[in-house]
Amino acid sequence: MKRMPNSIKKYIRQEKARIRRENFDSKKQKELIAELYNKFFLKKE
What's the pTM value of the predicted model, to 2 decimals? Predict the structure, then answer.
């Protein structure tokens, strides 16, 4: 499996921080972060 480019890693890191700031419910945070990762990993396959 190829490594992700630094720009994508940075985007994911920033989005995770935004999700954690805006949502206080930990279940909702986990769901949104999982969706974020799925958006990138499903495109590569």
Answer: 0.77
What local confidence, expressed as pLDDT, does residue 4 receive?
A: 84
Render the chain in DSSP notation, one character per residue. -PPPPHHHHHHHHHHHHHHHHH---HHHHHHHHHHHHHHHHHHH-
With beta carbons less than 8 A apart as the criterion, state whether 33 and 19 touch: yes
At 27-45, the pLDDT tens digits run 999 999 999 999 888 765 4
Residues 6+ apart with CB under 8 A from 2: 44
29 contacts 23 by C-beta, under 8 angstroms: yes
